[in-house]
Design a protein that fits this description.
Elements (H helix, E strand, L loop, with lengths): L7 H13 L4 E5 L6 H16 L5 E5 L9 E4 L2 E5 L8 H11 L6 E5 L4 H4 L3 H13 L4 E6 L3 H5 L4 E5 L5 H15 L4 H7 L6 H11 L3 H5 L8 H17 L7 H13 L3 E3 H9 L3 H13 L3 E5 L6 E5 L2 H11 L8
The chain binds adenosine-5'-triphosphate (ATP) and magnesium ion (MG).
Length: 334
């Protein structure tokens, strides 16, 4: 696996929660491809080297979870299936683990937790049990999710932990580090040339498109990144938004949201969007915006450390693609 770059503070904080046996569900929330899964994998690796098997970690990634499957969580493996537990529900599996590990306090990681309502017939019961496990300090529970609905529904039980895209400075440092790691030249050749691994000129092209998204920046590690390809891949997504995806939302409402985002540099307060796009029809607006968010057409999140909810472009590349599409140009000029 690629080495985690940056995120030292986030890793330290998460490890701190685990070691202190935090009594709330930790809700790791961040936009698509911000690195939630990568961070949790690193946490697992760090814990394995620090504690070995004394603190077992059970990791369930709901991306590939099928309701018909019965799962076992096993230390170090995502979604390991166990034949013998065919008839167990997820809650029974948890209880079984807790019963067998009675001296230890296992860590339960549930990744892609925004899918819980879609997958589990009784989502509230599941969260209730997880919250109780945390509260009674029988185990540590970490949920990773794209959206914030869990935070809204479970305010007192949940400790929000935001993982946003990198700031501009951190993003450039991230790209430098990734390039340095790939640099096969000998130390003296590098010393001799001593050029900036990410020049100002190049950064002016890369940043408006990739922003601080580690995944998109990852495409720019090679010396001549294909930025047009990055934008091209999301232009199609914007068109899907304008078509209104199976009637889940109205295309012209998406266009209005996109216009607002473009005008405001990529993020607008939730209440302002409701007001300007849906004319105060809060329930209709909320449901259409949630549908857009569930398809990654937009991102909805709270500003870190605050109660302000904002609507954001799905990623920096999305914002760029929105601008192109609204201007009637699908071809990026890079
Ligand atoms: N700090 C980092 N250092 C190196 N690579 C990273 C880092 N963060 C993310 N990546 C890489 O970026 C990509 C996206 O990260 P990841 O899958 O962890 O994001 P995510 O937030 O879990 O996305 P999703 O919302 O789709 O679940 C991966 O290829 C990952 O390896
Ligand atoms: Mg993930």
């Amino acid at each position: 696996m690629k080495q985690l770059v940056g995120r030292e503070r986030e890793l330290r904080d998460l490890l701190g929660y685990v070691e202190r046996r935090i009594d709330k569900i930790v809700l790791l929330q961040g936009p698509e491809l911000s690195g939630k899964t990568a961070l949790l994998r690193e946490l697992r690796a760090v814990m394995a080297s620090k504690y070995g098997r004394t603190i077992p970690v059970y990791h369930l990634d709901l991306t590939c979870f099928r309701m018909t499957d019965v799962l076992e969580w096993i230390q170090g493996n995502d979604n390991f299936l166990m034949e013998e537990s065919k008839d167990l529900t997820i809650l029974e599996v948890i209880e079984e683990i807790l019963a067998s590990e009675h001296q230890l306090q296992p860590v339960f990681i549930i990744d892609q937790a925004e899918r819980i309502p879609e997958i589990f017939p009784q989502p509230r019961a599941l969260i209730e049990v997880l919250a109780k496990i945390a509260r009674e300090r029988r185990g540590v529970v970490i949920l990773a999710s794209l959206d914030d609905s869990l935070r809204e529904d479970w305010q007192d039980q949940v400790l929000p932990f935001h993982l946003g895209y990198f700031s501009e400075k951190a993003a450039r440092a991230f790209l430098r580090k990734r390039r340095a790691a790939e640099d096969r030249r000998s130390w003296w050749q590098r010393w001799w040339s001593r050029r900036d691994l990410v020049s100002d000129e190049e950064w002016r092209e890369i940043y408006p498109i990739c922003g601080g998204c580690p995944r998109l920046l990852g495409f720019c590690v090679s010396p001549y990144p294909n930025l047009s390809a990055i934008v091209g891949s999301v232009v199609g997504g914007v068109h899907t938004g304008l078509e209104g995806r199976d009637g889940e939302w109205e295309g012209d409402k998406y266009r209005r949201v996109a216009e607002l985002l473009v005008e405001n540099g990529g993020s607008v307060e939730w209440s302002v969007v409701l007001d300007k796009v849906f004319g105060k029809d809060v329930s209709e607006g909320s449901s259409q915006l949630r549908a857009m968010a569930s398809r990654n057409m937009i991102n909805v999140e709270y500003l870190p450390e605050s109660k302000t909810k904002v609507v954001m472009a799905g990623s920096p590349a999305y914002l760029y693609a929105m601008r192109l599409v609204l201007e009637g140009r699908d071809e990026p000029d890079v």
